[in-house]
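Narrative summary of target 7.
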Amino acid sequence: MATPGIVSAMRTPRPSALLCLAFLLSAGSAAGAPHPNSFSRSLIVVEEQGATIFLRVQTLSLFEVLPHLDADGNLFLEPDELAAGEAGVDAYRREHYVLRVTRDGPPLEAELQSAEIINDDEDALSFQQFVDLELVVPWLAIPPGIEVEMTLFFDTSPRHQDRMDVVWPDGTREQAVLWSGEPRARFEGGERPARALSADLRIGFDHILTGYDHLAYVLALLVASRRLRSLIGVVTAFTLAHSVTLSLAALDLVHVSSGLVELVIALSVAYVGAANLVIKRPRPLWVEAFIFGLVHGLGFAGALQQLLLVHGDRVRALVVFNLGIELGQLAVVLVAATLLWLAWGRRQPRGDDGEPPPLAPPVVRVAVSLAALGIGLYWAAERGLG
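Modeled conformation, tokenized:
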């Protein structure tokens, strides 16, 4: 049976305020990777005599929960390693990916039909490897609905997500994103636009909150902004720019090596940190925010192509995913700006011209800029050598 879309598309501020800002910038290095996107994708095709499940998982995720699977320790799955560990992979799947007719009902028996290694080497700088599992669940009659519980990789990757599509015999499609905060979903046939919109929105929101390089860049621009109105201009320019390239790349109108994009994003973080330290006079931040925003948009597009299936509502998914990114970015900017105002800004008198004090005091500007410079260079070296 040919695999459908999933495979083919797959005052001096208080120390606490300083610590909060420093934590936001350094979280990426503490987490180990700027883009810790742990994800899987599954498609459940409901038919008269049963359901076929196509489940795609990252081999790195499998190695984390089944370390013996990588027998030679090279973080690359060979066919003989998969053959030797297939039973273990299936046992793990049976425990952590379960279908039921009712929430408290017995699990439906899903039999493994095949396991195949997929090497996504179209871009040598961003190679990824997956395992595609094909499962079959037989039944005598189509149930009125199915309940899916997914707890794959939660122990090792608490933010793991599975983007799930269920296709019914009449062609209707339901979608959901399962994660640790919502590991179960009920499907009963028919389109559910609200669920699909919510899923796409949350994927975008989550991506910016775990996109530590993007956040480091935005926060470094924030502390360089002199006034609130300049910050608004910077954020607007960044948003417009990355929205353009995100759309072009996601719609396959622009093709740029994702490895090169990630390297330039890291360098943009280092650049804004260095510029904040070296350039003392006010500079048009919105210009550099727009230029580098074009590159950051290409980085967002990579996540969109990984986490969203290509389907009939691709434009809608793109718009809602982008909206989720903007909401997450706005939330971070508001939190950081509020911390600065509470810790320092509200205690400072206005200037002789009646203008409010700068958004960030010199000590915060220097600390955040140094952090951005160091982390940006570290990421650039890591990605350039990786």
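The beta strands are 39-47, 50-58, 97-100, 111-120, 128-138, 146-150, 161-167, 173-178, 184-187.
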